[in-house]
Structure prediction request, 383 residues.
Amino acid sequence: MPYKRVVLTSGFAMFSMFFGSGNLVFPLLIGKETLDVSMYGTLGLIGTAVIVPFLGLFGMILYNGDTRAYFNKLGRVPAFLLTLLMLSLMGPFGVVPRCITVAYGGLNVLYPDMGFMGFSLGFCALVTLLIWRSNRVVDVIGLILTPFKLGGLLLLLLVGLYYAPPVTSTTISSGTGFFTGLHLGYQTMDLMAAFFFSATTVAYLRQNLRKSDDGEVLFKISLYSLLIGAALLAMAYIGFVALGAYYAPDLAGVKPESLLVVIADKTLGTLALPIVGYTMAVACLATAVILTILFVDFLHKEILKGKIGEKAAIFITIGATFAISLLGFSKICSGLGEILEVTYPALIGLAVGNILARMTKIELSRYAFWGILILNVAYKYIY
Prediction:
């Protein structure tokens, strides 16, 4: 496969892996809440949902996609527990069930009589089908799901912004707008995802290198893929925050998972709702597929040590995903928010510390992670 195609495929796959359930909702919420200071909200969002995650991706590239070496800076047992926590939250106990609720919010308008339980079962069955051959997941996401997603999102952004009404004024300050974007950017959980998406992408890139290529070639094409993914993600966030700000009066009282559908109805009309509904579903599906694979691999290899087959691990993971999805979007996000408020800054410290360790040989990762985590816990639960 030509390297340009490999880089584009993996770059698109990175974008598609990241741009899932939360990424379809939180930028719109930021725009809705910050209105005419939404530019500052966008900057905050880009900080925590683009710069920070791709800082993690860059660090993982420096570690050649080796998550074990990356997290073992904390010690073997803490690294195992942290990995378990992150993959659980991104997998069946957090983000994947949230993907199901957002996909349902996009399609429920088209099929109002569709029950959530039946939809969740169908979604889980489709995820199971797609991950049955996990070695093909980057091709499926990068070459099939991403173009469909990009087309639908681009159509909505162009038409929505072209016909956008004037932005309503707000009384909140630019600083408040910035921190609103910064805080909701945590909820995307993209830094956690970055640690593991990079391993998948680096492995894919390594498979497509020539035998004569060295580590420098792998680093370069990984970096190019990273830049493509980051640029696409930043542009999507800028557009979606703007949509939320422009159409805020029409979004009053609308459930978070249905914001995009309401905007689509206002801009494209009822006939275009199927495009948006299915685009949301595909976006959520792409993220759900890769996150489920990550958790299944960890469950099969690290927790159960191969005592049960990989297919059995898939069914266990999908069963837990279905059960958690029944909690609904708001309850899932509430639980995730409590944990992320404490852990996310510590993970940023770990990411910066690991980059410094690789580039300068100064070992600060362990101190940065534990110091920030202890301060956050003390601030949240003691003071």
User: Anything to note?
Assistant: Residues 215-246 form the longest helix (32 residues). The mean pLDDT is 83. The chain has one domain: 3-328.
